[in-house]
């Protein structure tokens, strides 16, 4: 049992080299917070425009399919 415990302990030691120091981690977190803050402002401004564009595209498809259906059935009016 002691051999298993020592094997696990010594195999986990190299994994600590992949964990960055806390001071680097704080800088990374601060940078990510700034990036999210900036992109959220852009997304809030762009969202209504994207939504309007998508609704116009979908409305044009709906009008075209409604027109096509009425022509194929022989209706005079929509």
Automatic annotation (TrEMBL):
It comes from Melastoma candidum. It comes from the Eukaryota. This is Uncharacterized protein.
């Amino acid at each position: 049992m002691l051999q298993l415990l020592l094997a696990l302990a010594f195999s986990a030691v190299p994994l600590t080299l992949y964990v960055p120091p806390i001071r680097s981690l704080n800088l990374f977190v601060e940078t990510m917070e700034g990036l999210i803050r900036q992109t959220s402002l852009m997304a809030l401004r762009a969202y209504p425009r994207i939504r309007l564009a998508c609704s116009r595209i979908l409305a044009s498809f709906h009008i075209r399919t409604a027109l096509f259906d009425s022509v194929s059935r022989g209706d005079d009016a929509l």
